[in-house]
Amino acid sequence: MASYGARRVAGLRREEVAVLAGVNADYYTRMEQGRERNPSPQVVDALSRALRLDADARAHLFRLAGATPNDRPSGHAAERVSPALRQLMDGYANTPAFVMSRTLDLLATNALADALYAPFDPADNLARMTFLDPAGRSFYPDWDRAAQATVANLREATGFDPDHPRLRDVVRTLTEHSADFTRLWNAHTVRGKTQDAKHLLHPDVGPLTLTYQAFDVREAPGQQLVIYHAEPGSPSAQSLDLLGSLHSTRHRPDPRREARRQ
After folding, report:
1. What is the pTM of this model?
2. Could you tell me the CA-to-CA distances from 229 to 62, 117, 236, 238 in Å, in that order?
């Protein structure tokens, strides 16, 4: 890179940033001064690389520039859940908590989530559990509503990466084995998982009315932390306590579930 004389302050000069980004120095100066109001996504991306911005700073630069990134987030979450997040979930002793991917794979569960989903074998993917597991229709008393929500959640993943192998595999399996899934999938309803009330029927403790909250895991785009809770002092809260006690006294390690705890 050419030298532009002695520096009075640390950092890159405008000319140096322009060279690294591959843009004209005058054009970069106009951008910096707010006189160039419509930079292309390619230019903003080049500047973010020249400045070595991390993901958050890059997104902020795009927002400031009024541009849309020309890349798409991955449609499938990283399979590894951070140890810190696992520790956080395990701290919710009286609350079912799990991490799932956009394709509704269960990536990590705490003990009470294991107990909650114990009727399913395996408890691996919420869509497969709803449509293909024999326990699904009894576990969800309002199965039609649960099925519609599940498909709408899964359909959202197609907006991120419709050709992702895992998404195609899940949809293909469900389409081949469930006419109900195929019908709902073809309706093209889209809805993200945020919060809602769930009415469940657990074979060990009976009816449960739970509310869930879903939180995006920023360090692992595509992962969501889902936490269920019952109204304090309600019959469902008492049933959750009982479920936890039953699970702890008769729990036998399941290699598939233990893998999600590591």
Report:
1. 0.74
2. 37, 15, 9, 11
Q: Which fold has domain 83-260?
A: Beta-Lactamase (3.30.450)
Q: What is the pLDDT of residue 146?
A: 96
- The residues spanned by each domain of the chain are 14-65, 83-260
pLDDT surpasses 80 at 256 = no
Long-range CB contacts (within 8 A, 24+) of 207-213 = 207/141, 207/235, 207/236, 207/239, 208/236, 208/239, 208/240, 209/234, 209/236, 210/96, 210/236, 210/240
Q: Which residues contact 145 (CB under 8 A, 6 or more apart)?
A: none
Tokens of 118: 């114990």
Q: How confident is the model at residue 249 (pLDDT cuts 50, 70, 90)?
A: confident
